[in-house]
Design brief:
With about 280 residues, the protein is of the alpha/beta class. It is built from six helices and 14 strands. Helix 1 runs parallel beside helix 2.
Length: about 280
């Protein structure tokens, strides 16, 4: 078989610049245009990880799993070079997330069997990354409580003064956004978002710096916001998390066009938005 070299981040050093590639919603076909960019970033030496925030292949289980096999083979040239880290999206729900859980091995704790690859955390350089599962609110309500227990325990430690001195940044990522200005009636576009109701308070309580999400096939950057209230219109020492929606890696819907227009009214929390018709 082909031979590959693999790089891992060096030991913790707050002084060195660290860069990751974060994206969501990449199908086997629709994501074709993204693959050359992933290959380039994975082999450039500039990035320490690729982080895919849910929705793979569209879908991993299709054709008895062959679509998932093909998708993973196409990713190999990128994921064989630097860590490829993940969280589940709504397209991973079928068969109790089994295709997702058996294709990816994330750094879950042995004392948290409920996670079963669905949530985890890891320090990479000066950043504490927290991967959460937005899908428990739609497919596994029995996991809502253990999921919150994990987040509270993990973030309480990460936010402690001693740990912040060592690892000063906290970045959370999950699939479905808490806010969005898309006109598609998704959870984030409703006034009573399940994900926002379930997770926003805990992320704000522990001072999460920013949150990266997908699901919407568009890009949107928010001002610091909590409870639908903008805390400031800049990013200088923000008093609430900053959200980024990055779901434009290329889904398989509508022939790969994946239109989720951000053509509706722009919320006060929306700093910039873009979508590709």
């Amino acid at each position: 078989s082909a031979q590959y070299s693999f790089s891992v981040p060096r030991a913790l050093d707050q002084a060195y610049p660290m860069q990751v590639v974060m994206f969501g919603d990449m199908g086997k076909n629709g994501g074709s245009a993204t693959l050359p960019h992933l290959y380039k970033e994975a082999t450039s030496g500039d990035n320490v990880a690729l982080i895919h925030v849910g929705d793979f292949a569209y879908d991993l289980h299709d054709d008895g799993g062959k679509r998932g096999d093909d998708f993973m083979n196409r990713l190999q040239a990128a994921s064989a070079n630097i860590p490829y880290m993940t969280c589940p999206g709504n397209h991973e729900i079928p068969y109790n997330f089994s295709h997702y859980r058996n294709r990816f091995t994330m750094p879950t704790e042995s004392d948290d069997p409920a996670s079963d690859q669905l949530w985890w955390s890891l320090d990479i350089g000066p950043v504490h990354f927290v991967s959460y599962d937005s899908e428990v609110y739609f497919a596994r309500p029995d996991l809502i409580e253990p999921h919150l227990e994990f987040l509270n325990k993990d973030l309480a430690l990460a936010a402690s003064p001693e740990q912040r001195q060592k690892v000063p940044w906290i970045v959370a990522f999950g699939h479905r956004p808490m806010y969005c200005s898309n006109i598609d009636h998704d959870d984030c576009a409703t006034p009573s978002s399940k994900v926002r109701a379930g997770l926003e308070t805990v992320f704000n309580k522990y001072g999460v710096d920013f949150i990266v999400e997908g699901h919407e096939h568009s890009y949107e950057r928010l001002y610091p916001v909590f409870n639908e209230t903008v805390t400031q219109y800049n990013y200088v020492n923000p008093k609430a998390p900053v959200h980024f929606i990055s779901g434009q890696a290329g889904c398989n819907e509508d022939g790969g066009i994946c239109v989720n227009p951000t053509a509706g009214a722009k919320g006060k929390w929306s700093a910039f938005r873009s979508w590709l018709p």
